[in-house]
Design a protein that fits this description.
The protein has three domains: 62 residues, Rossmann fold, CATH 3.40.50; 294 residues, NAD(P)-binding Rossmann-like Domain (Rossmann fold), CATH 3.40.50; 50 residues. 44% of the residues lie in helices and 15% in strands. It contains 17 helices and 17 strands. It has a nine-stranded mixed β-sheet, with helices on both faces. About 4% of the residues have low confidence.
Length: 462
């Protein structure tokens, strides 16, 4: 087979040989190499397709005319982080580990790693029955020697949590259960606060009471100078576990950005929209996000447990933030189409609570290095004592006081700036409540109600 040139020669070769389509048949190509080839095809103005592997063709899983699905590593603008597997193995081997939110994107990947590292017993705690069943079946097939204990449960059920902890006595706890969708939390403030804050407190208190050695909270970059209910509740959750130090259990948190391919994230959405022929919806042409793969997220969480001292918050160096519109264009091209020609991109506007740009660390937070060059640790200032404000927050939620809950969250996290949508909703709620109270006062009045009488002007017949 004659070799006409290198990848960077593609534009010239396309023009010289009148090439109509480029077939990318390099199954071992890294994401960086694949993006470079696609970029050269775009410069040459030629269509391209990513062909499936020979194994997929021989086994009949795909036809030669089909492209392989875009892989998550194809979209990552850097090399995936590789963590210390030896240290992780020694952390979890022969231990009893409990994972909340086990059936979710992060929780399930975490369970796969824990099983691979030979945990003695793995307690899968989740309220999603179908997801929990599917995860159990997968893990039993892949890791038959791991003892699995699936538990249908809710982090808001204190009695059940205490019973589960008393029965299994986990050495390690990974708390991944949370409400994570920003626009949904803006519309369901009390539910988000209850699940993300009270739920975290319940699990942490159960761990403290039953001899757990390490507790890791899965947090988010949205906890930094939050503008959303989801972000501020996760920041308060960090404060909850930070306030429980010196009790015999090491409590740490892990912050990271968006996880490529997780449920509800932009990648599955874009893939579905491209499959339908578009349009692909992006909130804003300038919006950026930090990204990592789900495998990186799971490994970082495990690494945090191995590295952590009480009160630490770990973050992963995820490189430069990615423009979402560039990610959309990249996915369209990797799928064999041209953006704005074959598949339209439509801008829909930022949703309630969303930022244009996220940050992993606030200006007042101090970062220090760890032995791993891609993992940093920060030690934020000591938060208020949990028992001084958590009961007040819980009381607000129990009486359905959204405004009181938001005001208390602002007190706890002074940098929190509620979204315009939430402020408008609170104003409308207060106005409606004032009107209803006025009507109730009139209805409960025992005597005759004196109503103003409009008298006609002099000289005008009544």
């Amino acid at each position: 087979v004659p070799v006409l040139g290198r990848v960077d020669d593609l534009p010239a070769l396309v023009a010289a040989h009148e090439i109509g389509e480029v077939l990318i048949a390099v199954p071992s190509a890294s994401g960086t190499t694949l993006r470079r080839i696609v970029q050269r095809c775009a410069e040459a103005g030629v269509r391209h397709r990513v062909l499936p592997t020979l194994g997929e063709l021989v086994e009949g899983r795909v036809m030669y005319t089909q492209m392989r699905e875009v892989q998550m590593d194809d979209l990552l603008p850097r090399k995936p982080a590789r963590l210390d597997r030896g240290r992780l193995q020694s952390l979890v081997a022969d231990k009893t580990v409990l994972v909340t939110g086990a059936a979710g994107s992060i929780g399930s990947e975490l369970c796969r790693h824990l099983s691979a590292f030979e945990s003695e017993r793995l307690v899968l705690y989740d309220r999603h029955e179908n997801g929990l069943f599917a995860l159990e079946m997968e893990l039993r097939a892949r890791f038959p020697d791991v003892r699995l204990e699936p538990v249908l449960g809710d982090v808001l059920l204190e009695d059940q949590l205490r019973s589960v902890f008393a029965t299994h006595r986990p050495d390690l706890v990974f708390h991944a259960a949370a409400y994570k969708h920003v626009p949904m939390a803006e519309r369901n403030v009390l539910e988000a606060a209850r699940n993300n804050i009270i739920g975290t407190s319940n699990v942490a208190q159960a761990a403290l009471a039953h001899g757990t050695k390490e507790f890791v909270l899965v947090s988010t970059d949205k906890a930094v100078r939050p503008t959303s209910v989801m972000g501020v509740t996760k920041r308060v959750a960090e404060m909850v576990v930070q306030g429980l130090q010196n009790g015999g259990c090491g409590f740490v948190s892990v912050r990271f950005g968006n996880v490529l391919g997780s449920s509800g994230s932009v990648v599955p959405l874009f893939r579905e929209q491209i499959g339908r022929g578009g349009p692909v919806t992006v909130t804003n042409p300038n919006v950026t996000r930090y990204f990592m793969t789900v495998a990186e997220a799971a490994q970082l969480i495990l690494q945090a447990a191995a590295l952590g001292n009480g009160g630490d918050i770990f973050i992963l160096d995820m490189g430069e933030p990615v423009r979402i519109v560039d990610l959309a264009r990249q996915m369209i091209r990797l799928s064999g189409f041209e953006p704005d020609e074959d598949v339209e991109i439509v801008f829909t506007g930022l949703r309630p609570g969303e930022k244009l740009h996220e940050q992993l660390v606030a200006a007042e937070e101090e970062i220090t290095a760890t032995y791993h060059d891609r993992i940093k640790v920060l030690r934020p200032s000591v938060p208020p004592l949990v028992d001084t404000w958590l009961p007040s927050l819980q009381a607000c939620m129990e009486r359905g006081d959204v405004g009181g809950t938001v005001r208390l969250l602002q007190t706890l996290v002074p940098h929190y700036q509620p979204s315009a949508f939430l402020l408008q909703t609170l104003c409308e709620t207060e106005a409606r409540r004032s009107h209803e109270e006025a009507v109730d006062d009139l209805r409960s009045h025992k005597g005759p109600v004196a109503l103003p009488i409009r008298r006609p002007h002099r000289g005008v017949p009544a």
